[in-house]
Design goal:
single chain, alpha/beta, Rossmann fold, five-stranded parallel sheet, 4 helices, globular
């Protein structure tokens, strides 16, 4: 299973990031929820301290492009195998920076990828 960091995690059930954490966990993936507010989602504490997580396969973004620059170094220093840009998070600048480091990028929906079996 793929260890996934959900950036933009929230305890608000109306948000896609909330659903993503639940679905990733239900599919057996280890999830590291990171957000700007403390809380819990799917029984996991939402981290606000930018944890140094080892072995991250995927970073899935739920933070809009206007709020991403402050996260660039953190995301890239995790050295994930891929970054998923969910709808509304597409960012050519971050995609290029990631690709320069050999990190694969995808503009896709984590929820759809899980539901059709190509996550």
């Amino acid at each position: 299973m793929k260890k996934t960091l959900v950036l933009g995690a929230t305890d608000n059930p109306s948000r896609y990031a909330y659903r993503a954490v639940h679905q990733l966990k239900s599919y057996g993936h280890e999830v590291v929820p990171v957000g700007i507010r403390k809380g819990q989602v799917a029984g996991l504490d939402i981290r606000t301290d930018r944890p140094t997580a080892e072995g991250i396969d995927t970073v899935t973004l739920y933070v809009g492009p206007q709020n991403q620059p402050g996260w660039y170094d953190y995301i890239l220093d995790l050295n994930p195998k891929r970054i998923i840009f969910n709808p509304g998070t597409e960012n050519p600048e971050l995609e290029e920076l990631a690709q320069q480091r050999g990190i694969r990028t995808e503009e896709a929906c984590t929820l759809v990828m899980l539901s059709v079996g190509n996550y």
